[in-house]
Amino acid sequence: MKIDDLPGLLAANKGFRFDPAKVTAPSLILVSNGEYQSPEIKRQTKLCIEGLPNPKKRLVITPAEEGASSHCIMENRSLMSQELFDWLDEVFK
Q: What is the pTM of this model?
């Protein structure tokens, strides 16, 4: 299926519900401090991390004071990368 526009993407995903219980792989959730201030983001993040069945899961809230407070942690990619690689080191011990 090829989708070329946003309306097509929305139509293709109609009815989709994410179920974290179906994610059996180790999981890392990175959320910026700025986004985590939203009650809805907190709620969804909590549901997700608690629903993941694999014990190798981690939630990281990146600190605003280290320049990691916006979506995708773009203003401090080195911090995001360090968190990711530390987690991978732990998962693949």
A: 0.82
